[in-house]
Amino acid sequence: MPASTTSARSATTGRTRDTRWPALVVIAVAQLMVALDATIVNIALPSAQADLGFGDAERQWVVTAYTCAFAGLLLLGGRVADRLGRRRAFLGGLTGFATASAAAGLAPTFGWLVAGRAAQGAFAAVLTPTALSLIAVTFTGARERAKAFGVYGAVASSGAAVGLLLGGVLTEYAGWRWCLFVNVGVALLAFLAGRSALPPDRGYAEARVDAVSGVLITGGLAAVVLACSQTARHEWASAAVLAPAALGLGAISGFLWRQSRADRPLLPLWVLTDRSRAGAYLAVAVSVVGSFGMFLMLTYHFQVVLQWSPVRAGLAFLPLSLAVSASAYGLGSRLLPRAAPRALIVPGLALAATGLGLLATLTPTTGYLGTILPAEVLLGVGMGLVFTPAISVATSGVEPQYAGVAAATANTAMQMGGSLGTAVLNSVAVAATGGYVATHGPSAAALDHGFATATGWSALALTATAVGALVLVRTPRPERTGS
């Protein structure tokens, strides 16, 4: 019997039974740290830019260095977890993340800061799939598994909004560097608790870590993200966009070709060819496009158009975070044992699209209580209904030795959705703003016109994805046998 299966079963009986839920708390805290770091520096960027003296063209790399490294290395990180054992990989990832956070917080130069952020993303790429696979192999009963994934989904999907709030508070009252230093204390506490709570496993020696494939997929994804980012300043048909896009697509094609020929691939292609799993990955990726689009547009609307402080802007996102948490844990985890996953995923995408549709009417005079707050609640409830069943589908039906790679693929979909979605929606917003300025002149209305246009396209993308999920996701309602 595989080591991880033994440990998962032993976690339900005898002496280790009581450690499953403390272990879930440790996993959730670590995942919150990883999730919020994707956005915590957003509000802090102006202060960091003034302190270190880098220009407007370079500031995007403080964010994308983290998300690109995270997305590109997730598959490799999942395989590392399978090879070394999930407990060892998780604790090692915490140590590395804390070290990288400290280095970035101490950065004396822009280059140092970007390198630290990239290192954070690399260690997050080990932590996240390890956390998901720990849940998948530890909680086997239908109800308990749904509760565990509900907790994880609430944390993972609300972390970005929490990051915006915490980033505003730390930037205004402690300084931008504390947006990075805060991870050191959190990681240390999670490490100490994890040593006693996490179930031990020996890993799988046959789970080969393919470094060449890791380089291909990491470089390919990063190049595609770079191409999308370049469209904010260059035409789609320009060499600045086409060259990295061609390089990235070539590297990704090389990665897929290598996986099709490898005896023990980094990504077994059957993970992608299962229609239900593919539909779950699609739903997760596009729903993250919607949420990151909202963060980007509303952050600038609050701070640039309305001139709100970082703390007030962060507080304005709090209803979104609460709605996601309540939906993922209060609704998603309770309904998942009783309903087919697509019965939650499709309505969730529709609700999220409705919320984004409200924001497509954004103007400088749009009221927070009348339009923005309902939009946040609708998006939050919808995302919560999507994440819990989609993550469960994505990691179900695989053998324990492949739990890490299935989890990594789900999170790669999340990170690529956020990275590519933000880049593309930003380009749409810039183009729409430019067109408005050319006709009406520069104004706050021009900015909001761009934001509203981009959000409208995001709503259409979620609507189309709801149709796709209805067709693709065929996982049946769970049999009510587990406790």
List keywords for this structure.
483 residues; mainly alpha; 18 helices; 0% strand; disordered N terminus
Compact overview of the structure:
The chain contains 18 helices and no strands.
Task: Describe the protein's architecture and organization.
This protein has helices at residues 3-10, 20-36, 45-52, 60-84, 86-105, 110-138, 142-173, 178-197, 211-230, 239-261, 270-273, 275-305, 310-316, 318-335, 342-359, 368-395, 403-440, 444-472. By secondary structure, it is mostly helical. The longest helix is centred in the C-terminal third of the chain and has 38 residues, at 403-440. The radius of gyration is 21 Å and the shape is globular. The model is unreliable at 1-17 (pLDDT under 50).
Secondary-structure blueprint of this entry?
Elements: H1 3-10, H2 20-36, H3 45-52, H4 60-84, H5 86-105, H6 110-138, H7 142-173, H8 178-197, H9 211-230, H10 239-261, H11 270-273, H12 275-305, H13 310-316, H14 318-335, H15 342-359, H16 368-395, H17 403-440, H18 444-472
Helix pairs in contact: 2-6, 2-7, 2-8, 4-5, 4-6, 4-9, 4-17, 5-6, 5-8, 6-7, 6-17, 7-13, 7-14, 7-16, 9-10, 9-17, 12-15, 12-16, 12-17, 12-18, 14-16, 15-16, 15-18, 17-18
